[in-house]
Specification:
There is one protein chain. This protein is about 30% helix and about 20% strand. It has six helices and 13 strands. The strands form three sheets. It has a five-stranded antiparallel sheet with strand order 9-10-11-12-13, covered by helices on one side. A four-stranded antiparallel sheet has the order 1-2-3-4, with no helix packed on it. β2 and β3 (about 55-60) form a beta hairpin. α1 crosses α3. It folds into three domains: about 1-125, Roll (Ubiquitin Conjugating Enzyme), CATH 3.10.110; about 140-265; about 295-380, no CATH class. The chain is of the alpha+beta class. InterPro entries: BRE. Keywords: Apoptosis, Cell cycle, Cell division, Chromatin regulator, Cytoplasm, DNA damage, DNA repair, Mitosis, Nucleus, Repeat, Ubl conjugation pathway. This is BRISC and BRCA1-A complex member 2. It is found in: Cytoplasm; Nucleus.
């Protein structure tokens, strides 16, 4: 497969600025050229984050005039989304000031690397409004009530789609908790702002129902947040018959806030535990300095040398660490060090202090390393 030529420097600078400086996780799916045998590519497919999913827009430049403004080709499923067409007033006349004059396209400056990001963010904001308008026009009394009671909340996104049985449904995505999680994590490694969302999916019903079914509810966050809090472990409050989201959200956010605070406090608990291991095991070879989820120590029993890997969950100390022993002297047929199975069948109580936790773990490993050495010898001999 022949690789596509590179983007011209002007266009490349704009794309790099967008990907590096955006607060949203934009992604590039493909880059290609509009002309055969061209020195440069001049168009690419951009994945636009929206409603916990992505929509695809093609950004089309002209390699012969790289400083000219690009065209944007929107998804074929959004034929009615025409954000830059002139506005028609009530008498059928085109307004003097068209939308284009209000857009970042109007005074385009190709030498400004921030222009593409501003343009795409502008189009995305208009797309959010377009989807809201679509949902607002649905003839469903329940959805109209949900919209009227919750749309004043900042950051909500909605979209109309089809379920697995091809029936219409509306997805609400609601950002939760007015907490800057990035600022609460020391030496935070996250580039983008971490958020937790409630996804609520309502079926579209054209008929009034006195007891409409509960929406499908799910908490969603970025995969990066799992080092702090496992969203899958958060139990959602029950949805009571006749309830709406405006009633549901306060209880959900109150419960979630408590668990986030506990998760942040758990970082300190894990750090103190790892530090308490040092007097018994010596200084760690490796350790996670930010979330304190992992640590590795070197241990010796006679002439047998091995590593002890500690894996701590976000539920520590309620959940005990998982231990894995790794020989530094025995290798399998593929040349990889021999590892023990995961170990968590040892005495543990979250009420013990760090010193007692460490003492009990040390005693367990002193006994377990004998079994592990035998396990290694059997593995090598087989």
């Amino acid at each position: 497969m022949v690789a596509e030529p590179p983007l011209p420097p002007t266009i490349s600078a704009q794309l790099k600025h967008l990907l590096f400086h955006s607060s949203l996780p934009f992604r590039v799916e493909q880059i290609w050229s509009g002309c055969k045998n061209s020195r440069f590519s001049d168009r690419f497919t951009l994945l636009i984050p929206f409603c916990l999913d992505y929509v695809k827009w093609d950004i089309v430049y002209n390699a012969l005039f790289p400083s000219a403004a690009p065209d944007i080709v929107f998804s074929p499923n959004d034929e009615e989304f025409c954000p830059l067409l002139p506005i028609i007033d009530g008498e059928g006349e085109v307004e003097v000031v068209a939308r284009l004059k209000k857009s970042f396209l109007w005074d385009w400056n190709g030498k400004d690397p921030s222009r593409l990001l501003k343009l795409v963010e502008e189009m995305r904001d208009l797309y959010v409004q377009y989807q809201r308008k679509r949902v607002g026009e649905i003839d469903d009394a329940r959805l109209k009530f949900e919209i009227s009671t919750i749309f004043s909340r900042e950051g909500i996104e909605v979209c109309l789609g089809a379920g697995t049985d091809k029936s219409e449904e509306v997805k609400f995505v609601v950002p939760l908790l007015d907490i800057d999680l990035n600022k609460h994590v020391h030496a935070c490694p996250w580039k983008q702002q971490q958020k937790i969302y409630l996804q609520a999916i309502f079926p579209v019903s054209r008929m009034y129902s006195s007891a409409p079914s509960a929406p499908r509810l799910k908490l969603v966050s970025s995969s990066q947040l799992k080092d702090l809090l496992s969203i899958e472990d958060v139990k959602l409050p029950s949805w009571v018959d006749g309830m709406c989201m405006a009633e549901y959200l306060p209880t959900l956010e109150e419960n979630l806030k408590i668990q986030v605070i506990e998760a942040l406090a758990s970082i300190g608990s894990r750090r103190r535990f790892i530090e308490a291991l040092v007097p018994k095991f010596g200084r760690h070879l490796e350790a996670d300095p930010i979330f304190c989820r992992r640590a590795t120590f070197l241990a010796v029993s006679g002439v047998f040398t091995f590593l002890v890997h500690f894996s701590l969950s976000t539920q520590f100390p309620k959940q005990q660490p998982i231990l894995t022993l790794q020989s530094s002297q025995h290798y399998n047929s593929q040349g990889a060090p021999i590892l023990s199975p995961s170990l968590n069948d040892y005495p543990w109580s979250p009420r013990w202090g760090d010193a007692e936790m460490t003492e009990r773990l040390f005693d367990f490993i002193v006994k377990e390393c004998v079994n592990f050495k035998r396990y290694c010898l059997d593995a090598v001999a087989s």
